[in-house]
Amino acid sequence: MGCRCTRSWFLFILTPALVAMMLASSVASTNSRAEMSWKLDPVHCMAVFRIQHMGAGMFWGKFNDVSGTVSYPEDGSEAPKFNVSVAVESVDTGTAKLDKTIKGPQFFNAKEWEEITFSSTGAEKIDDKTWKVKGDFTMHGVTKPIEALVEVTGVIGSPVQKKAGFEAVFTIKRSDFGMNWGVKNRALGDDVRLVVGLEGDWVR
Amino acid sequence: MCAWLLGLKAIGYVDMVMMVLKSLVFPVLAGGGVIALSWLLPPLKKWTWLGAWAFGLAISVAVFGSWIAENGVPRVPVESREQWIGILAFLAAIYAALAALTGSREFPVPQITAILAGGLVALTPLIDGWSGGKGRTMFADMEVADQVALGLAIGLGYLALLGVAERRKGITLPFSFAIAFTGLALLADDAGWISMTFAIAAAAGTAFIAGIVARFGGSPSIGRGGLLATCVLLTVLPVATYRQAYHEIPWWAILLVAGAPLVLLPLEIKVMEKMPPWSQALLRIVCVAILVGLGLVFGLSGGQAGDEMMSIYQ
C-alpha cells in the first residue's frame, strides 16, 4: 500500500514535469525554426559572373570571398532572408593581369568600392524549393533593387550541426551601377548574369 | 559599301572609333586649336599673357575634355577619388591663367605662385571635408604626408623649371613634355586604365601639336602658365595611375618618366651654348626621350597579349 502511494506521488510529480519539459522543448523548437540563422562559410561560397565580350563569347569570372548571413527555417515555412557581402578584391578570372584591370578604376574601382552587397527585403514562394527574393543590391557605390531566383539546394545535419545551401541566379545591368566602360561600344556587354552559391552553418 | 558600314556598326567598331574620337582626337584638336590660334593668329600673338597661358590652357582643355568624355563632369564633393583628375585638369587651366598674369615678375611672385598651386593640391583633404565630402586624401592609399609631397612636387617642379621655360623658347619644352606624357600614357595603358590613357595621351598629342606650331610660329615660349599647368598634370596624373590602379608599376619607373623633363635643368650648361640652336634643342629632347625610354623599359610589364578584357584594338 505504502509502495503504491509512493509511486502515485512519484507519478504526480513526474508527469507534469515531463509535460512541462515537452512543452518547453516544443516552444524552443518552434522558436529555433522561425529564427534559424546560418552563417555563410566563405570556403564553400562563391559568386560567378558571366558577361559578353565584344558581342561574341561569354566571359566568366568569379569572386572567391563571399560572406554574410542567411535566416531561413529548415522546414521552409518562411522566406529566406539574405545579407551577403562579396569582397571585390577577390575577383578571379584566371588571369592575374586581367584581375588587376577589373579591380581598377575602369571597372569595379575596388580601392573606392570594396564590397558588393545584397540585403533582401522580401520574398515570394515559387515552389517548395524556390523563392523569388527581392532586395537591395549595392555595387560600385550604387544601390538598386533587384530580384533573384533562389533555390534552396539543401538543408542537412544533426541537432548539433546543420548546414543549408542556396543558389541564387539573377541578372543586372552594370550600367545601372555606373560601370559604363565598354557598354556603348559593345566591347563588353551590359548584362551581367550572376550565379551565387551559398552554404551556411547553423548558428545556435 | 552600305552593308560593309552596317557590318562595322553591328560589331561595334563604329562605336569604338567614336570613342577614340571623343576621348582622344577631339580633345587633342581642341587643345591644338587653342595653341594654334594663340601662337599663330597675328591679333592674338600680340597678347603676351595669352601666349604664356595658351600651352597650359591647351593641355588642360585636352585632359579635361578627354576625362569628361569618358567619365562625365566631375562634381564636388567627389564620390570617387579619381574624379579629382577632372577637377584638377579644370583648375590647371585657372592656375595657368594666374601664372601667365605674373608676367616676368621676380621674387617672390613665382614662389608665391608655386606655394598657392602646390598648397591647394596639398590641402585637398581639407577642401574635400569643407565641401561636404569625407575629407579623404586625393587618391587611394595616400597619407597626409603623401598629399603634402604631391603639393611640394608641383611647387618645386615649377620653380626648378621656371628658368628653363623662360630661356628655352620653341620646340624644346613642348616636345619634351609631349614625350613624357606619351610615356605616362603607355604606363597608364599598361596599368589597364583606359580613361587615364586617353587623358594623358590627349595631353601628349596637344603638346606635340604645340611643338609643331612653335616650330613654325616664331618659337614662342610655353610661358609660366604653360609650365605650371604641365607641372600639375605631369605630377597628379602619374600619381593617380600609381595609386588608383592595381597594376604594379614600380614607382621609380613612373618617376623616371614623369620627371624626365627635369634633365633639362643640368643641360643648361655653357658648353651647350656653343652648339647650333637646332642641335641644342635636339640633344635636350633626345635626353628627355632616353630617360622616358628607360622608365618604360623598367615600367612596362611586357604584357600578356590577349589577356586584357579591353583589348579592343587587337
Describe what you observe in this structure:
Chain A has helices at residues 2-34, 96-103, and strands at residues 37-40, 46-53, 58-63, 66-71, 81-87, 91-92, 115-125, 130-139, 142-157, 162-173, 188-203. Chain A has 204 residues and is α+β, with helices and mostly antiparallel strands. Chain A folds into 2 domains: 1-34; 35-203, Lipocalin, CATH 2.40.128.110. Chain A has an 8-stranded antiparallel barrel. In chain A, strand 9 (142-157) and strand 10 (162-173) form a beta hairpin. The longest helix of chain A has 33 residues, at 2-34. Chain B is mainly α and 314 residues long. Chain B has one domain. Residues 303-310 of chain B have low confidence and may be disordered. Chain A binds chain B through residues 53-55, 59, 93, 95, 97-106, 109-113, 141, 181-182, 184-188, and chain B through 10-12, 15-16, 18-19, 70, 79-82, 140-141, 191-196, 243-248, 301, 303-304, 307-310, 312.
Structural class of chain A: alpha+beta
How far from one another are the termini of chain B? 23 Å
Q: What CATH architecture label of the largest domain in chain A applies?
A: Beta Barrel
Q: Please state roughly what percent of the residues of chain A sit in beta strands, choosing from under 5%, 5-15%, 15-25%, 25-35%, 35-45% or over 45%.
A: over 45%
Overall strand count of chain A: 11
**Percent strand of chain B:** under 5%
- Helical fraction of chain B: over 70%
CATH class of the largest domain in chain A: Mainly Beta
- The CA-CA distance between the termini of chain A, in Å, is 49 Å
Assembly level: heterodimer
Q: How would you characterize the largest beta sheet of chain A?
A: 8 strands, antiparallel, barrel
Any descriptors?
heterodimer, A: alpha+beta, Lipocalin, 2 domains, elongated, B: 314 residues, mainly alpha
What is the structure about, briefly put?
The complex is a heterodimer of chains A (204) and B (314). By secondary structure, chain A is of the alpha+beta class.
